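Bug #2210: token dump truncated for Ribosomal RNA small subunit methyltransferase G?
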Amino acid sequence: MSQPKEDLNQRLSLGLSALPLDVSSSHIERLIDFIKLIAKWNKTYNLTAVRELDAMISLHLLDSLAIMPHLHGKTILDVGTGAGLPGIPLAICCPERQFCLLDSNAKKTRFVQQAVLELKLNNVTVIQQRVEQYHSASGFDTIVTRAFAELSEIIKLTQHLLAPKGIMLAMKSQHLDQENLDTLAQATVIPLTIPGLDAERNVVRLQFSNVAEVS
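Reproduced locally. Full output below:
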């Protein structure tokens, strides 16, 4: 039996308050519509291992939105977006920013493009390409990754896409090796507490005074 939308809205609202994030009721509606699209496409496309809408609220929506206060600038690149995470939840709640969602998997980018159309997200561009082959003339103010690669590999693959004074936000679920972090200039580990999720979450913020420093 499907869960009433009102119950999902209430659970998401409580989670957002706990983060705490101020998200409008219209954005909450669109966030719920998004996970319903994931659930629908999961039946055929196997986009994520998470099947229950209730679990998606914590694992997909709140987990993605927890980094919203740490975004920098107007242009955001979500590398390895998969099913549009964290890019689509962030784009819904940050309509003033422009998002580029990048993934090499054609099946997943087809879903993300459809979600963008159905949710009427005018601030999202979807690109199917490998990150090392993708280029941007001006670069991005924030590059976001979620369970994408090791930190050193993230820097290696995305450095050419970072705007001057831009930052990288690497979302990590596992314990971070401090010795590895010590080799990275201006790395800050920010612990995250996700409502409804009893698991370690961190975002590593990497900032460089200029792009050349990440080479």
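Output looks complete on our side. Confidence is low (pLDDT under 50) at residues 211-215. Marking as cannot-reproduce; reopen if the truncation happens again.
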